[in-house]
Amino acid sequence: MGHNGKNGYFLKGLLIGSVGGALAGLLMAPKSGRKLRSELKEKGSDVLHDTKEFCLDAQKKACCAFEDTVDRLADACEKTKKVFCRR
Q: Which tens digits make up the pLDDT trace of 6-24?
C-alpha cells in the first residue's frame, strides 16, 4: 500500500509541475493576447481531462482495495466464528 501511495504523490507532483511549467512557458513567450488566451484555454482543458482520468483511476483502485478488504474481513470472521463457536 505504501508503494502505491508514493506513486500517487509522484503522479500528483508530476501533474502539478507539468501544469506550472506549461503555464510559465506560455506566459513568458512573446505572443498576442488572443493567441495566449487560446493556448491557455487548450492547456487548461488538457489538464482538466488528465486530472479527471487520474481521479477515476484512483477511485477504481480504491474501490477494488475496499472490496478486497471487505472480502478478507468476511473470511477472517467466518474462520474466527468456526474456532470459537465449535459445538
A: 777 887 888 888 888 877 7
Q: Are 51 and 15 in contact (CB under 8 A)?
A: yes
Residue 79, all three cell numbers = 474462520
Q: Please report the pLDDT score of residue 25 as a whole number.
A: 76
Task: State how many domains the chain has.
Answer: 1
State the residue range of the domain holding 80: 2-84
Residue linked to cell 513567450 = 29
C-alpha grid cell, residue 42: 487548450
Residue with cell 467466518: 78
Please name the residues in contact with 31: beta carbons below 8 A apart, sequence gap of 6 or more. 39
Whole-model pTM?
0.50
